[in-house]
Amino acid sequence: MHRRPPSRPARVLVSALAVGTLLTCAACSGESRSEGGGGRGDSAADVAASPLAAESPLASPRGGRSASPRAEKSAGVLTPAGAKAALITEADIEDNWTQVKDAASWGDTLLIGKVDVAALLTAKTNAADCQKLLDALYDDTLLGKPSGASALTGFEQSESRLLYQVAAYDRAGLGASLNWLKTLPVKCDQFTATDSKGGHRTVQVIEDPVPSVGDARQGLQVTVTGTSGTQPVTLTLQLAVVRVGTDAITVTSGGLGGTETDTTKAAVQQGTANLKDVLAGRTPAAQPGHLD
């Protein structure tokens, strides 16, 4: 059994195959993120967009910003209650997704590996960025460590899983992280990672479209091809990041059966709307639930 270093959190992203156990799971450190639970209306009252919005437990006035006076009125600091309220629910993504309670402990051993610098197709200096990508996918730290409130939830359907995070970040750091993500389809278009036993995995990174929401956004698709026992397996992940002010949502979805593009799109659109509502001092509207 392979265990990750104790200094890094763990999570399991895909289910075990019938051919053998693929994943290992370890306890996750919750120092930099908190897992969201039930419906979004449990943590705050419905507050209208008005001067009283700043008194909402969901958001408080944000200082030190260079936005327009009108934007300053509606923008707020993300609080722990607000981050939880901004999470999506099963009703937001429909289909047969089921919300889970252990999303903070998910982890995928296919993402554990050391980049083979010699086999890198692009410039050898890009190896550090490719390694950072693998580590960030495994640790759920694509945007770095949040500087403020954060919340996380997860959903599963068959062999696919979806992880959803919302968090506050340092403005400069958030911008740098988004710019870094934009470079990866070129820097890390294809590379090889080696596991602790010397096994090789092929990793491919391409740009993936994200709905035109929020202030800035970036999407990637990452494919990792390796083996489980003697059987070939392929893990495909869709990554979508949307910035709203100095806060952001991150969606990571997929699994051994491929990706669910419509689900990822729905999570991005509804999640961005939820975050905007929270920052304006409103409680996100509940969705009607699954449709027949």
Structure description:
By secondary structure, the protein is of the alpha+beta class. Helices cover 22% and strands 26% of the residues. It has helices at 69-74, 80-85, 90-93, 127-139, 171-187, 261-279, and strands at 59-61, 76-78, 98-100, 114-115, 150-157, 160-168, 190-194, 200-207, 216-228, 231-244, 247-255. A nine-stranded antiparallel beta sheet has the order 3-5-6-11-10-9-8-7-4. Strands 1-2 form a two-stranded antiparallel ribbon. It is globular and about 50 Å long. 47% of the residues are buried.
How far is the first residue's CA from the last residue's CA? 43 Å
What is the helix/strand order? EHEHHEEHEEHEEEEEH
Tell me the major beta sheet. 9 strands, antiparallel
Q: Helicity level, as a percent range?
A: 10-25%
Give the strand order, joined by hyphens, for the main sheet. Answer: 3-5-6-11-10-9-8-7-4
Offer a quick outline of the entry.
By secondary structure, the chain is an alpha+beta fold. Helix content is 22%, strand content 26%. The protein is globular, with a radius of gyration of 19 Å.
List the helices and strands and how they pair.
Layout (H helix, E strand, L loop, with lengths): L58 E3 L7 H6 L1 E3 L1 H6 L4 H4 L4 E3 L13 E2 L11 H13 L10 E8 L2 E9 L2 H17 L2 E5 L5 E8 L8 E13 L2 E14 L2 E9 L5 H19 L13
Write a concise keyword list for the protein shown above.
11 strands, 26% strand, 292 residues, globular, two-stranded antiparallel sheet, alpha+beta, 6 helices, nine-stranded antiparallel beta sheet
